[in-house]
Amino acid sequence: MLTLLLLLFCSLRHTLQTCSWETCNKWTEEDGVINVHIVPHTHDDLGWIKTVDQYYYGAKPQLVPVGVQYIFNTVIDELQKSPDRRFSFAETGFLWRWYNDHGDFEKHKLQKLVKTGQVEMIGGGWVQNDEAASHYVDIVDQMTLGLKKLDLLFGECGRPKVAWQIDPFGHSREQANLFAMMGFTSLFFARIHYLEKEARLKNKSLEFVWNASDDLKTQILTGAFYQDNYGPPEGFCFDALCGDDPIMDNPDMEGYNLEKKISLFVESVRKQASFLRSSHVMLLMGSDFQWTNANTWFTNLDKLIRYVNGNATHQIKVFYSTPSCYVKAITDASTHLPTKEDDFFPYASSNVSYWTGYFTSRPTFKGMIREASSLLQLCKQLDAVADLGPEDDADVEIMAKASALVQHHDAVTGTAKENVTRDYERRLAQAMKEGEVVINDYLKKIYPRGSDKAPRHHLCPLINETICNAIKDESTFAVTVFNSNSRSFSGLVTIPYNSKQAMVMGPKGERVPVQLMKTFQVDSLDTNVRAPYELVIPVEVGPLGYATYIVDNSTSTRSTTPQPSTLMPPKQPVSIQNDEVILAFDENGLVSTLTVKATNESHKLQQAFFYYPGVMNGTQPSGAYVFRPDGQPIGFEKAELEVVTGPFVKEVRQTFNSWLAQTIRLKKGAKHIEFDWIVGPIPKEQKNPITKELVTRYSTDIKNGAIFYTDSNGRQMMRRQRKFNPSYKYADTEPVSGNYYPVTNRLYIKDENEQLTILTDRSQGATSLDGTLEVMLHRRCFADDHWGVEEALDEPGDGNGLVVRGTHYVLYGETKTAAAIHRPLAVDIFHRPVLTFATVQNASTFAQSYKMEFSAMTRSLPEFAHVMTLERWHRMSLLLRIEHIFQSQEDAENSRPMTIDLQDLFSQFKITKMTELMLAGNRNITNYTRDRPTRYSGDFRIVLKPMEIRTFQLHVQWL
């Protein structure tokens, strides 16, 4: 394995440049001598206590007296004073901003430092993304954005070899897998469970080879830092933010401390080396927003290196280095390293500090991120398919930057201050407006049949709240349904509606039967601005396509009128059914039984809400990061019911109290049940408010024991066992939060025959009891958890507290066929149709003037395949990612290698040539594999193995 990693290190060398990994300061191979790699670096969050702009400029110094622009300025100047000095930069988002703020002279200085090896780029993503709450599509997108910018600025030397995830609060197996597929040779991070840290110190296994995928057999050399942080050893932080003394080496001066400093350093190095398997030690010099005065740092580090090396009795050689040089050193030494197959969740910093609350924190923001990501994928496709111009390319980049920014490990996690989160939300909202511009530019080009100008189409950002001001006063309007999925969409869309009559015309001029029903009146949602009705429309949309439906509210004998709703009396048995299942409710208004029509078998399926009171006092309260319940959960035992039936949708609407309600929905032809929950504002007592963390539980008779499964960033599934971890001896100090795991889009329990699967519309935290799945929906905390935010997680919402609405998609069925349903469904949920609305003056004229339906693909892909990415890459080329969405042995039909023919797959362009790239698009795959051609010029058939993502640069001719 290490031989292979060394070959990978050597494979990308460029003879005309001397990148950092080619110009490493020399180490010694002398027995008994410890090589100390001094790695100067800075960790710069793109938002946390301050906004990204405030951090860059140094605004609000009373919060944190730092400015990232000054770090770049001072480091670049100081590096030029000595060719031995090194520095590593990680976050491309800040680097790109600095680069564009400066003139050619300053840019050239940085470029020269990179190309001569003094500056190394590590990580290279736009941000260091979170690994619990980020979806794999978003991870790949933000890494691709950052790495593409580095490639543009620095070429070969700007292509990082080392993945750098030093601050996220736990680490996922899929993240490691994605890094390996991007061509990274190694990965470093700081935070691991305190018990696993103890075990790894004892076994000298801080460095190991991570087997990141059972399907793809990917591996990546991984290192967890010796310290519990990513800063310098105690006593050697030479930054204005620290209190350590400098090295005072003049014996005639008061405060002389040279011998003391050197002795402390030597002791620290020897102690760290005793826990490692090679003669090399990496010491990080820098931390959060440090190095605003690089002269102070380098002056003291120069002294440290000179004085330690000047005394041979220390048997320590110290030199400036970079992470890639450190990896090169330990691979050259053929160090034997252990392996790991599981992941690093949950993360705990102590026996009472389980960082599992952030899996759910700020749930509306998490939902907004997923919505913005889906819109970004659509707009990238539209830009590519229609060959839109540079202005639309720029709009898409604004969207991409906003989506990348919020993958930051203090953004999507919900662990930034309230005003910083609002800044993230503002950027996402602006990105969505840019998306509306792209959609309209696309329709200008595609929509008209002749010379007619396409009408303005509007997104409705509050459609989740049954609000769409664009059509509020319109009697006739067009709703265009965009499908960014590479499979056809056949299903239902629901829109806010303001009339008691509705007639809908489909894209072929046909009358479309619809369902009109009253909006669920919930106390926590403002009924004055919500539409009084919802209109359910069955639609058919081709892959990467759209279809337009015209809605008319004029009175007609053919108009649809509202379906009746029935308010059920207490203790009245209730059931609803569709083609697949019958769902029964007990006398308290709670779900009790599911009957599968195909087999006529009934199964226990219960769902109920609870909340955990949170610890408020002591050393570890429950807060933005940490989930720490105080006692047993408190349940909600009864609900008032309202039943709505119709030809397409059957609903049971539950009202538990003024701040908790739910719609349980069966759709025609659907195998899943929708649990559409509305939570909030969680009550806040006037005196001594109590933290409340609301969960939902789904209970069955499935005999899963203590085993359950959660996804890893939305891709491979991870086996979990309650009160057990394969990497350390479990300690039952926090029996609830210590068994919570991140869920990006699904989790399940199963036995030999039956499986319960829950798919989510956003990232959440979850756990399992026997036969039960528990998912946390919302949190309102009234104490800070003491991990840096210095602010309670008490989201104001409209001033009374936050209301959140979301959906769980629940599947119950045979274990052997479950994956065939939940794998495609997860893709469908991510690519939920995007709806736009336009005013219509005359329906028949409108239909004659515009293309009412369109598909950018000539055929749907089979269920195992997914067009993950289609975007403009360069002016005359596109980037295509296509993936196999099944794991091995999941499904009898789909869990095997499959062939896809890309020839004539797309209707708007012809592929003339394609080149295969690594996952992030910044490296040709030639250097990593010899088992398949990288250039295709005639035969465009490709084979996809389970869980494989293949990336291609397409040279195309638009038709």
UniProtKB/TrEMBL annotation:
<keyword id="KW-0326">Glycosidase</keyword>
<feature type="domain" description="Glycoside hydrolase family 38 central">
    <location>
        <begin position="353"/>
        <end position="428"/>
    </location>
</feature>
<dbReference type="Pfam" id="PF01074">
    <property type="entry name" value="Glyco_hydro_38N"/>
</dbReference>
<dbReference type="GO" id="GO:0046872">
    <property type="term" value="F:metal ion binding"/>
</dbReference>
<dbReference type="Pfam" id="PF17677">
    <property type="entry name" value="Glyco_hydro38C2"/>
</dbReference>
<dbReference type="InterPro" id="IPR011013">
    <property type="entry name" value="Gal_mutarotase_sf_dom"/>
</dbReference>
<keyword id="KW-0378">Hydrolase</keyword>
<dbReference type="GO" id="GO:0004559">
    <property type="term" value="F:alpha-mannosidase activity"/>
</dbReference>
<protein>
    <recommendedName>
        <fullName>Alpha-mannosidase</fullName>
        <ecNumber>3.2.1.-</ecNumber>
    </recommendedName>
</protein>
<comment type="similarity">
    <text>Belongs to the glycosyl hydrolase 38 family.</text>
</comment>
<dbReference type="GO" id="GO:0030246">
    <property type="term" value="F:carbohydrate binding"/>
</dbReference>
<keyword id="KW-0862">Zinc</keyword>
<dbReference type="InterPro" id="IPR028995">
    <property type="entry name" value="Glyco_hydro_57/38_cen_sf"/>
</dbReference>
<dbReference type="InterPro" id="IPR013780">
    <property type="entry name" value="Glyco_hydro_b"/>
</dbReference>
<dbReference type="GO" id="GO:0006013">
    <property type="term" value="P:mannose metabolic process"/>
</dbReference>
<dbReference type="GO" id="GO:0005764">
    <property type="term" value="C:lysosome"/>
</dbReference>
<dbReference type="InterPro" id="IPR050843">
    <property type="entry name" value="Glycosyl_Hydrlase_38"/>
</dbReference>
<dbReference type="InterPro" id="IPR011682">
    <property type="entry name" value="Glyco_hydro_38_C"/>
</dbReference>
<dbReference type="InterPro" id="IPR041147">
    <property type="entry name" value="GH38_C"/>
</dbReference>
<dbReference type="InterPro" id="IPR037094">
    <property type="entry name" value="Glyco_hydro_38_cen_sf"/>
</dbReference>
<dbReference type="InterPro" id="IPR011330">
    <property type="entry name" value="Glyco_hydro/deAcase_b/a-brl"/>
</dbReference>
<keyword id="KW-0732">Signal</keyword>
<dbReference type="Pfam" id="PF07748">
    <property type="entry name" value="Glyco_hydro_38C"/>
</dbReference>
<keyword id="KW-0325">Glycoprotein</keyword>
<dbReference type="InterPro" id="IPR015341">
    <property type="entry name" value="Glyco_hydro_38_cen"/>
</dbReference>
<keyword id="KW-0479">Metal-binding</keyword>
<dbReference type="InterPro" id="IPR027291">
    <property type="entry name" value="Glyco_hydro_38_N_sf"/>
</dbReference>
<feature type="signal peptide">
    <location>
        <begin position="1"/>
        <end position="18"/>
    </location>
</feature>
<dbReference type="InterPro" id="IPR000602">
    <property type="entry name" value="Glyco_hydro_38_N"/>
</dbReference>
<keyword id="KW-1015">Disulfide bond</keyword>
<dbReference type="Pfam" id="PF09261">
    <property type="entry name" value="Alpha-mann_mid"/>
</dbReference>
